[in-house]
Amino acid sequence: MHRRSILWAAASALGAAFAASRAGAATEAPATKKLKVVYHLTDLDKVSFVVGNIQNHLDGVGGPDNVTIALVVHGQALRAFHASSANPDLTRHIGQYARAGVELAACGNTMKSQKVGIADLLPGFVAADQGGVVRIAELQSQGYLYLRP
Question: Where are the beta strands (DSSP E) in the chain?
Fold first, then answer.
């Protein structure tokens, strides 16, 4: 009987110590890590939706200082960003994003197929010369989360 009491006391003490250590860990402030996100846009009919998502993302985290965002555009969606035909609302948003530090990457392969250069796109775009999907993979290898709305 005495042995059982000693074992019970030891097990209880171990459990209490473990619970106390876990409680201490739970109250420590978590390390704040700035998220990195890449938005993948290929569909022309989703341009406004994705641009809205980026704005909601920036607003939701308290601004561009709290998140790193990249937008990689290829396929038919790139047509929306041709400077000669872009709508004024899209032009305004892209200008704001460029000033906020959002990376705006245009697929080099798509640019060739649409016969446009970087100067033909809205200001702020850079060419992803190896291709849009290659740029996305590079960003993912750097810890970017992938979003394709």
Answer: 35-41, 67-73, 103-107, 125-128, 145-147
Residue with tokens 């849009």: 132
What pTM, to 2 d.p., does this model score? 0.78
Superfamily in which the 35-147 domain is placed by CATH: DsrEFH-like (3.40.1260.10)
Q: What is the pLDDT along the chain (149 residues), one digit of tens a residue?
A: 555 555 455 445 445 445 555 555 444 545 568 999 999 999 999 999 999 999 999 999 999 999 999 999 999 999 999 999 999 999 999 999 999 999 999 999 999 999 999 999 999 999 999 999 999 999 999 999 999 98
CA distances from 99 to 40, 86, 95, 124 (A): 20, 18, 6, 8
DSSP H helical ranges for 63-128: 88-99, 108-113
Per DSSP bridges, beta strands 35-41 and 145-147 are: parallel
Rg from Cα positions in the chain:
25
